[in-house]
Structures are given as structure tokens and as C-alpha cells.
Amino acid sequence: MFPAPSSYWLHFFVFSSLLAVEAYAQDLDATYHPDLRQDVFVKEKYHFLNVPGIGMFTVYDTFDCTLECLSNPSCLSLNLAASKGADGNFWCELLTSSKYINPGEYKENKTSHYFFLKGRFQGFQPTSCFEYGQQGASKDGIYKIYDNGGNSFQAYCDLRSEPGIAWTLIMSWSRENRVVSAFRNTSFQNNVPENENSPNWDRYRLSLARMRSLQVHSTHWRATCSYPTHGIDFRDYLRGNFKDFNIVDFLGSGECKRVEYVDIRGHNGTNLTVPFWQGWALHIDSYSGSCEFSATVGAVSSEDNFGYYGTFNPKFRCTQTDNSTTQWWFGAHLKK
Predict the structure, then answer these.
(1) Which residues pair with 107 in a beta bridge?
(2) Closest CA to 66 of 97, 38, 95, 101
(3) Which InterPro entries does the record match to this protein (predicted)?
(4) Distance between CA atoms of residues 315 and 300, nearest Å
(5) Under 8 Å CB-to-CB from 27, ≥6 apart: which residues?
(6) Distance between CA atoms of residues 65 and 59, nearest Å
(7) Each residue of 85-97: pLDDT tens digit?
(8) What are 172-187's pLDDT values in tens digits?
(9) Which of left, alpha, beta for 222 (phi over 0: left; psi -120 to 50: alpha)?
(10) In what helix (H) or strand (E) does residue 115 lie, and over which residues does it extend?
(11) Would you tell me the crossing angle of helices 6-28 and 62-70 to the nearest 10 degrees?
């Protein structure tokens, strides 16, 4: 009889050790993570995280479910049935997110338990919606963001409208509120917050400090019209990057600045210059045709787009009715 290879004894030792740890962990509501040493899966009874799953299958016990998660690089946490099914097994669902990334989707549930890896996401302090998207968050809504000083605030994240880009809302207002100073008389350089702790579509603007904190972690900016109604279909839409045009620090009148894409009332173009004004609120005057882009056909005299609205055109989505809204966002491409 030949002696067993040394790798056999190593695997036997590891497997036996894991079984022993599992027996101990059941009392602690935690499962040892063999690859990350001090990390453990923490069990939170009767809870459920409602996020996209990698897959659902049946397992014999908790240990099998956690090992499945560890073997899948996309798995960040898991839901596990609180009791066995008719076949004597538990259902196990591997997740691409965690309660720290999607806190709004973490709910009580009498039929399941939730497991997350202790130490992996505790202390997670995202500085923009980009970091949520990078960790697998995929649902639009309110998220907790941290500024450069470590202070948290609530912000609206758009993680789905443009695949591969995560956007953080910095300002939104309705046509009815166009004369409010924060949306009419002040540039991005001015510190004029409006309801900054209560994100909404009708009257909202972040403080300059929060804008600059987000800007540091963003590569792009965009403006949208009535996003809650139309989403993103690239009609009455504007997008650029900070490298070509720093909208926060710009001051000028009718200066031609390069953008990645612009559409105003169906007139559109890519990678071309557009006339911008900012001394009051940042905006385009589409009645001016002095740059590469022109939307003069169908424009009204001195028509303002994406801000200021001293003169507005009801054919432009941002200013169709008093309930129409304008949004400005900072964002970045997700890394593959």
C-alpha cells in the first residue's frame, strides 16, 4: 500500500479544521472564513437583503452556503432559509451586494437569515455614488455619502440610467422655483445650499463643500430635464467631463466649451463646443450660434437652457410646465 501524498493530509487537515470551526461558530452566529483568517460571516437572524442575486440553490447546512459564497468572487453576502424545506435542505441565495452598500434594501423577514462578512464592509464610507456602483449596488435611490471630512449626508444615486456610469445628484429645481436665488443668481462657486439634507426634485442644492468633495471623486458632469418623468433618453440632455470643462470654477459669458454630448429640442451633437454663461447660474443660450453647436432653429430670443431661465422655451423639457425640473449631476465610469 502506497503512502498517501502530503497534499491529501493537508486537505484532510483543512477540512477537519473547518468542520470544527463550523461547530463552534454555530454558537457564535458566525462562520470562519478560511481565506481571510480573522474575518467571519456574521449571522443576523430573520433578515433579508433584497438585491440582485447570483443564484439560488439548496444546501445541506449553513456551512455549505457560506463556502459557496467564498468560492464565488462576485458574492458579497447571502440570504439563507431560516428552516429546512420538505427535502430536508435549506435554500441559499448568494448576493452581489451587502447591507452596507444597499442599506435601504435590508429588511426584517421571518423566513430567512442574512450573513455578511465581518470586516469587509464595516467602516465602508463611500465618497460618491460611484463607490456604491463599484461595489455592486444597482438600484437608484437615496444613499449615505461621506464628505472629505468623514461627515455623512444623504444623496440621490442614479446607478442604472447609463450603464457603466454612476451619478450623484447635486442640484434639482422646478421651473416654478426658477427665481429662487440658489437656481437663478448664483454660480456653482457660491455656497447656497437648499434642502441639502433632504434630496428632492423641486428645490434642492448641495453646499459648495459637498459639491467639491464629490467633484474630487468624479470625472464627469451632466444636466438632465425632468429626470423623474423621462429618465434618460438623451433628449434635452448635456454631458461633459471635468478635464475639458470645469463647470464649478468657470466664470464667463458665451464662451465655447467642449462637451461630450448635447441635445436641445432635438438638435444634438457629440464632442463639440457649446456656448456657456456663468456669472449667475450656469446655462446655455441656444439662441446664440457662435460655437460649433447650434440650436437656433426653433429657439426663442435669449432662450436659456439647463439653468438661469431668464427666458425659457416651453418646447424644452426643463421648462415645459411649472412642474418641469432641471438636474445637475457629478459622476464617473465604473471600473471593470
Answers:
(1) 48
(2) 95
(3) Fibrinogen-like_C, Fibrinogen_a/b/g_C_1
(4) 10
(5) none
(6) 6
(7) 999 999 999 987 7
(8) 999 999 999 999 999 9
(9) beta
(10) strand 112-117
(11) 120
